[in-house]
Amino acid sequence: MAGFIVKRLLQSVILIFLVLTITFFLLHIAPGDPMAKYFNRPGISPHTVEMMRSKFGLDRPLAEQYIKWVASFMRGDFGFSLNYNRPVRDLIFEAVPNTLRLTVAALLLYIVIGISLGILSAVKKDTIFDKVNTIAALFIYSIPSFWLSLMLIFLFSLKLGILPSSHMQSFGLSGAGWFEILCDRAKHLVMPAFVLGVASAAGIARYMRGSMLDVLREDYIRTARAKGLENRRVFLKHAFRNAAIPVVTIIGLSIPFLLGGSVVIEKIFSWPGMGRLAVDAIYARDYPLVLAINFVVGVMVILGNFMADVGYALLDPRIKINEKRKNKQG
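Now predict its structure.
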């Protein structure tokens, strides 16, 4: 396990460095100028804009900018935001907890609802519940997340008025108690977490149903039943553990999609997280901020895949991580 972790960390460092290098050059060779918004602005002369360009090093050759950026990045300095005029590190530290709060809530919904519905559909195969669940899962899975977000805002915020439509917390709660703030934040979390988690749960429910049905046809399940074990024990102890192994891998690989989906969801619900920050940074051509966000998201994605690998080995101790890696490559 220790050897695997070290090898995986080294591969991850190289991969992230390559991704950031490619992103750096693509950003700088793409058309556009991060200082363009200052041109023709009252009170800012062209000379001042050129001084700002020189201050941020944008007037230097691209190779020199890259070497300077690598040296700064290796010291843990993400630079200064061209758009917010603040250290990038401060912006990242403010946004990451908000994105993690949303992603973790969505991931819990994704796992609990998806796996529960998948197991129930397999147990109640070909019943009305199974058919309704299948149709509902396909329907929800096919709905675009932005459309579902807008429909939920229209229904629960504009028509019913029971859930807030945007932001992470209501205005004017600075003097409120911690319980009132907690309840208010939970209400703001409901719709974005639902859109991000439940829409993806429909997909994992289909995987779980198919995996569970395959396991229930195995000989050892028939043997367990022949010994007189209760159905609940057969499902939970013998069938679920084996059926969950491929699903755990899918869940780990789904974390990047949850993070990617949060970009759209955060923008629609004005959630102050990494997604909204990334969109604003791209529009403003804020090079240091875009590169720092890429780095943080890359670390999150690699961490999610690593957790899936460990979970895979824990569910079935007979399977070693290296064997799993070989099977993936095969």
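Residues 111 and 248 are 9 Å apart (CA to CA).
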